């Protein structure tokens, strides 16, 4: 079992802790997934498979106290796949009730840090060309578009940008999120 460091972030609604995703989180993750991605939502089985697959790293953002967000304590999640060369962001999502608090940025920063730690040369992701908010987040975190995949997302035939962030730099990412390292178990 190895260890990693994931941040606590201080939001205007309290402390949010990033920790590895566990099977017990999946009911809540699916609830968020359906809310955020509708017809494109991954199933419970798909997430369970991801958690069990080598080279994957999934995390959740959890409030330290119940009711801070008016409901469940898990308010965000994200996942990474490292194939030995580059890292691919598999998913990232934040409860609509908790968006705009820099939780998405903190999840993304954690994935980028993990990819760098694993020795990835770059981080890749796909994003719908219509998803302005996510594109803004990725651009501010150093991603740029390298190609477009036509009719990538169904339903709707929506094109996707493939965005890449090189990891040739060894400096910390920029960003507005306060960072406090904590030590915790790695789920893989
Ligand atoms: C994309 C998503 C994960 C961002 O999460 P979030 O916690 O709301 O984002 P943050 O609060 O960290 O904001 C990050 C950046 O997004 C941008 N942003 C935030 N709110 C925005 C808005 N209303 N409009 C445009 N850009 C916005 C800003 O650049 C912000 O950075 P800054 O405030 O530091 O300048 C979230 O909106 C989400 O879950 N969307 C639905 C699922 C999804 O589309 N996932 C991505 C699939 S590729």
TrEMBL record:
Keywords: Acyltransferase, Transferase
One cellular component term from this protein's GO annotations in UniProt: NatA complex
Keyword Zinc: no
GO molecular function: N-acetyltransferase activity
One Pfam family of this chain: Acetyltransf_1
GO biological process terms on file: mitotic sister chromatid cohesion
Protein name: Ribosomal-protein-alanine acetyltransferase
Organism of derivation: Jonesia denitrificans (strain ATCC 14870 / DSM 20603 / BCRC 15368 / CIP 55.134 / JCM 11481 / NBRC 15587 / NCTC 10816 / Prevot 55134)
Superkingdom per UniProt: Bacteria
PROSITE patterns for this protein: GNAT
Keyword Repressor tagged: no
Annotated segments matching region Disordered: 169-188
Domain N-acetyltransferase: 16-168
